[in-house]
Design a protein that fits this description.
Layout lengths: L1 E5 L3 H12 L3 E6 L2 H7 L5 E4 L5 H4 L9 E4 L5 H13 L5 E4 L3 H10 L3 E3 L6 H9 L3 E6 L4 E7 L9 H4 L1 H5 L2 E12 L5 E7 L14 E7 H11 L1
Parallel strand pairs: 1-2, 1-4, 2-3, 4-5, 5-6
Antiparallel strand pairs: 7-8, 8-11, 9-10, 9-11
Helix pairs in contact: 1-6, 4-5
Length: 229
């Protein structure tokens, strides 16, 4: 996959190198030339650029980029402006770093696809989650086992847990199911919030947009995601 990472500080820089090491193409962008100089040999491409300059951002290969990650951690204004520019230029998927609660509310209003909190989620964890296509979130239990959040594959919608029998076919356990509900934020804008339904019964029937919390081996999770749709 192809990534653009804006803001090559501690978090953004490590994430850029980690994704490159995993075999992905990464373009790292920062207005600070010294940061780019430090990382240029560890990632695919590195560019000294002001990401709040729309004319400069237009020259990036956005149509060929799968994910844009706004990892700016010091300047809220720069983060908001660059996020808005990438959104206006129709980037396929935007993941933005939230610096505080107000900042999160603003970038939610802009319409990013996902918000991350580096204090809670390490760059290594995010890189592994991005590596497994279809995984919304993940928690590594060991080198072999993960707990992941995945959107229910279309083939299971309308089936009961017993009929789907994911445990037998893929050796995965459904820990619970999460539903996304819309609630108003501080600005009165509807934003998504997770609600956990608790213990899943065999009679539960999968619905569109359900998120499954699964436990199992990474290879089985990947197989489930590949064959699920």
């Amino acid at each position: 996959m192809k990534y653009i990472i804006v803001g090559i500080g501690n978090f953004g820089g490590y994430l850029a190198k980690r994704l490159t090491n995993l075999g992905h193409e990464v373009i790292g962008i920062d207005a600070n030339a010294s940061r780019i100089e430090m990382i240029k040999d560890g990632i695919t491409h590195s560019i000294v650029m002001d990401a709040t300059d729309q004319a400069a951002v237009k020259n990036l290969p956005l149509k060929d980029t799968d994910v844009v990650i706004i990892a700016i951690g010091e300047h809220i204004g720069a983060s908001i402006m660059s996020t808005a520019i990438f959104k206006q230029l129709k980037a396929k998927r935007i993941i933005a770093r939230a610096i505080n609660e107000l900042h999160e509310t603003v970038i939610q209003a802009i319409g990013v696809d996902e918000i991350i909190h580096p204090e809670e989620e390490t760059a290594d964890r995010l890189a592994k989650r991005l590596e497994m296509k279809g995984v919304l979130d993940s928690l590594e239990i060991s080198e072999e086992y993960n707990i992941v959040e995945v959107k229910v594959p279309s083939r299971y919608i309308g089936l009961t847990v017993a009929d789907a029998d994911i445990r037998k076919e893929f050796y995965l356990n459904i820990l619970t199911i999460i539903k996304i509900q819309q609630k108003k934020n501080l600005l009165g804008i509807n934003t998504p919030h997770k609600e956990v339904i608790g213990v899943v019964t065999p009679e539960y029937k999968f619905e569109n947009e359900d998120i499954l919390l699964l436990f199992g081996k990474i290879k089985n999770i990947q197989q489930f995601l590949t064959l699920g749709d």
